[in-house]
Amino acid sequence: MKIVHIHHHYWPVVGGLENVVKALAEEQVKLGHEVHVITSTYGAEDRPRKEVINGVHVHRIKATRLMGYPDLTYPLEHPDVLKDADVVHGHSQNSLFTMKILEHAKKQGVKTAIHFMAVDALNDHPNLVVKLLGSKYSSTMTRRAIKEFDIYMARSLRDKELLMNRYGVRYVHYVPDGVNDELLNMEYLGDWFRKSRNITSDYVLYIGRLHPLKGINYLIRAMKIVSNEIKDSSLIIIGPGDQRPYIDLANRLGIRDKVLFLGYVNDREKIGALDASTALVLPSICNYVEVYSMVISEAWARQKPVIATAVGGIPYRVKNMENGILVPPKDTKALATAIITLLTNKELARKLGARGRENVNSWNQIAKEVLKLYEK
């Protein structure tokens, strides 16, 4: 089968959806299929326009970007690879790039699939302009995708529910993200991580972008409460972004020695950090930034519980006191209480993490499921 994936970014651009497209495409190559990716040159200006990466044929085309928003990337050309494809699989109806390429493929009579994400997720965005204009754009693109394309997939149960109940779509296939087999099978790396970073205290872990909507300031404030209760405790923060406002906050609260910023780390160190942690904490404050949250799957793959706010797709996956703990967004005291609960009850943390692992799929399983949908 000849499969073409579409998204406005691809490797070397690193991000949640970028990683998903790369993992799915490469897994389909392993299953014996001819796989192509159409993407823009944004973020990869130093790479060839055409190249093969781990068996995936990458086509980078000229595009323009409106107002600097990645989702408003507009393609300026269409590769010939679309003509004889068996299926063209677009990722995110919010991506103008994805939608325009899919529409072009549809006009040529090619079977099209759209992977929905962040359906109506801007309705609680704190920026009023983004909330109003972004929500209108998002709902328009969702309706357009429903009208135009052949196969509907949703990355989260939240999106599937909205598509069926709000937009009246009868058949939406829930196809979540998977994890690499390496993450499921790699040996325990917690001791190695602690030794390499000279860490002796119990800690909770944040992994993700350093962005205001991720609620990191609430997490740091919660750690002030935690440190008053448990002296030998700390917070480790992994991810790209500007650390300065959060370092300043930790200094003002007098807990700078309790918060360790590691920035971007490689996969081995991330796994080690998860292994040595008590729990993963996701304190996000709005729906838009938590569509599926791949890092939840990564934590569960290493049998770690998740403490998270009830936003976006999180409450569809994290079940309170079953595989993690749910707290309201922006609630510093509730967040601190949840952290203290798991730091002081390691047996509960172990049980919640073990139950979480039962909800994790490998990329091999996901790729096979997607191929069945193509063939239907």
Automatic annotation (TrEMBL):
Annotated Glycosyltransferase subfamily 4-like N-terminal domain residues: 14-182
InterPro entries noted in UniProt: Glyco_trans_1, Glyco_trans_4-like_N
Stored Gene3D superfamilies: Glycogen Phosphorylase B
Domain of life: Archaea
GO MF annotation, one: transferase activity
All residue ranges annotated as the Glycosyl transferase family domain in the record: 199-358
A Pfam family that the UniProt record links to this protein: Glyco_transf_4
Keyword set, alphabetical order: Transferase
SUPFAM superfamilies in alphabetical order: UDP-Glycosyltransferase/glycogen phosphorylase
Keyword Transferase: yes
Protein name: Glycosyl transferase
Organism (species): Vulcanisaeta souniana JCM 11219
Upper classification of the organism: Archaea, Thermoproteota, Thermoprotei, Thermoproteales, Thermoproteaceae
